[in-house]
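Exercise 4. Each item below gives a protein and its sequence. For each, produce the structure-token representation.

Item: Putative spermidine/putrescine transport system substrate-binding protein (Gellertiella hungarica).
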Amino acid sequence: MLSNARKILSLSTAVLIASTSIAAADSMEDLVKAAQAEGTLTTIALPHDWCGYGALIEGFKAKYGIKVNELNPDAGSGDEIEAIKANKDNKGDQAPDVIDVGLSFGPSAKAEGLIQPYKVATWDTIPDTAKDAEGYWYGDYYGVMAFEVNKDIVKESPKDWADLQKPEYANMVALAGDPRTANQAISGVFAAGLSASGGDVAKAGEAGLNFFKELNEKGNFVPVIGKSAPLAQGTTPIIIRWDYNALADRDTLKGNPDVDVVIPATGVVAGVYVQAISAYAPHPNAAKLWMEYLYSDEGQLGWLKGYCTRSASTTS
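Answer:
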């Protein structure tokens, strides 16, 4: 993940760290003190089995002695944005300091004035195409849309999107979220449409909606949010979700049931997520320290252990 240039940031333990410059080693000491004085970081929508976040959160708490208040782990990107809006004047436990959202939500949140700029020490190693030039949002990791399959029930895994329409998959296929708010589900619809439209990006959105309309009419779509529990129980034996989530489920379930993770032959979509700090963060210094942690080698390797492909590079 990230390495390199550290530019001096004048920080004080008593003053809000407002600069968007790249942090230097000595100013990091001030940032740590300021964050510890705040004592708490409030996150939202970070399931422990998503991209290794459970271990990352525990590592952050152990390293800095800061409490992490975790809001609504199963929320979608849209829910995170709404949480910022709803808590603009709230400095209590329901106001998120940081968000982890789908790529499209970064620019829109900036346009609405919901996030604040901050450039981590390893800023230069994040690709320009995956970050806002002013530091309002920045890519963290990405995955590829996949089919997660319960092999105890589904003897022959689908190989491509069109296979999901087959009668043998009746009452089996689910999305891993609500496509009205969850980036993972939105991306699943887009990927299906990309396949159905022959790779035409301009037509993928409408084609995806039509694909799922047909899937529902054929009785193959299950209107339940797909997770590891309904997968194991057989309620949703085929789930459309990011590969890293499917691989994490495979590890957690330990062969009960056997889980197959399939990258479809067409309509292959990789989805980048981005980090940002709320413009109304009750704990702005803890938020910035959290970003420094995530974009350090330690944090980036933590994401890698969670099967996520990093958006930056490590020094080791």
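Check: The chain has a mean pLDDT of 90.
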